[in-house]
Write a structure and sequence with these properties.
The chain is built from six helices and five strands; from the N terminus they run H-H-H-H-E-H-E-E-H-E-E. Helix 1 runs antiparallel to helix 2, helix 2 runs antiparallel to helix 4 and helix 5 runs antiparallel to helix 6. It is α+β, with helices and mostly antiparallel strands. A five-stranded mixed β-sheet has the order 1-2-3-5-4, with helices on one face.
């Protein structure tokens, strides 16, 4: 090769190689910065998710405390008030048949104890996780059925659940909220719960034959529905409500497995 070509090539190489190394270094730095930024954003999203999940759990605990207060007042308190009045009557000598009195009082105390046990179980997160979602819902409907005129049915489509224990607990609390709303507001006589463990997602529906409501009304459903929707969204799921005045209500949630 002619010396006249070698010298320009060496000069060009001495310029291009450092430039190539410079741009390669810049590219690597930019790529690493993007990666760090992506990881930081991912961690921030995970932090926000955990924060929202914790907030939701705290809201659930607050609601549970309110439920304890209401249940004690409405059911257990009334039973114990009856026992108290019976004992006053006994102490005042107003009881003619002490044998019958003793049986009635014993039954009242047994009812109060049973209600307390049921209440403690459906509010105990560890107990719910231990016995599972299906059994927890069954006990909840049995408890509600014993204190109302509503007939509850539960249908389960066999399958393997892909829900974590935390998500199972949140699903139970959503169902608990829905059932509480039905008992308080729907005027229903029949409620059906369906659980379907699909291959890629969990599905649950709660349907009643109550008075329903106008979905076009912005105030329909209230804060309870908003809380349920937020909890389902925290699980990356969807909640659908179908209702109309006089036609009952159907709530359906779908939660993809992680």
């Amino acid at each position: 090769m002619n010396d006249s070509y070698i010298i320009p090539l060496l000069v060009a190489g001495s310029i291009l190689i450092p430039m190539f190394m410079f741009y390669l270094t810049v590219f690597v730095i930019i790529s690493k910065n993007k990666q760090r930024k992506s990881e930081a954003e991912k961690k921030q999203m995970e932090f926000q998710y955990e924060k929202q999940l914790l907030q939701s759990m705290l809201e659930v605990q607050e609601k549970a405390m309110n439920q304890i207060s209401q249940e004690i007042h409405d059911n257990i308190g009334q039973v114990l008030t009856g026992v108290h009045l019976n004992l006053i009557a006994l102490s005042n000598g107003q009881v003619d048949d002490t044998g019958k009195f003793a049986v009635e009082t014993k039954e009242q105390v047994s009812t109060a104890l049973k209600d307390l046990r049921n209440l403690s179980r459906v509010l105990n997160s560890k107990y719910i996780n231990k016995i599972g979602l299906q059994e927890s819902l069954l006990k909840e409907t049995q408890y509600l059925g014993s204190h109302t005129d509503i007939r509850f049915e539960m249908e389960v489509v066999d399958g393997v659940s892909g829900l974590s224990p935390e998500h199972e607990l949140m699903v139970f609390r959503v169902a608990q909220e829905a059932l509480s709303n039905i008992v308080k507001h729907a005027g229903a006589t029949h409620v059906t719960i369906k659980i379907d463990y699909q291959p890629a997602a969990f599905m649950m529906s709660v349907a009643d034959d109550g008075r329903g409501f106008d979905q076009g009304n912005d105030k329909a459903g209230g804060i309870g529905l908003i809380n349920m929707r937020q909890r389902v969204e925290l699980m990356r799921g969807t909640l659908q409500i179908v209702s109309a005045p006089g036609a009952g209500t159907r709530l359906t949630i779908n939660i993809p497995y992680e």
